[in-house]
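Protocol step 4 of 5: obtain the predicted structure for the target chain.
Materials: sequence only (see below). No template structures provided, no constraints applied. The aim of this step is simply to have a reference model before the mutagenesis design in step 5. Sequence pasted as it appears in the construct record:
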Amino acid sequence: MSANAKISDVYQDRITCFIDILGFSRDVADIDANPALLLSVDAVLRRISKCKSDLDRARARGGTSYDARMSCFSDCLVVSYRCEPGRRFGRCRMRQFSAR
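Step 4 output (structure tokens):
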């Protein structure tokens, strides 16, 4: 961040969901002892990859009414949506709020 940039110019107000996939690290560690686990681990990783690419494609072509982002690391996912006052998200309507 440059010296003249404001934090509000760099960071956005977003609703953020942190998801920890329970048992994933254990299953990855146990693949050598139980090779059948590779199929479930691979299926989870493929699904995560598809969700992320679907979100990225929809956002790039303007196919969503909200700004959704997704990233993953280790056995965790982070999904976030930009807070836009008045914008509908499912059945919910965003309201203006301020961090205090």
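Step 4 remarks: The radius of gyration is 18 Å. The chain has a mean pLDDT of 78.
Proceed to step 5.
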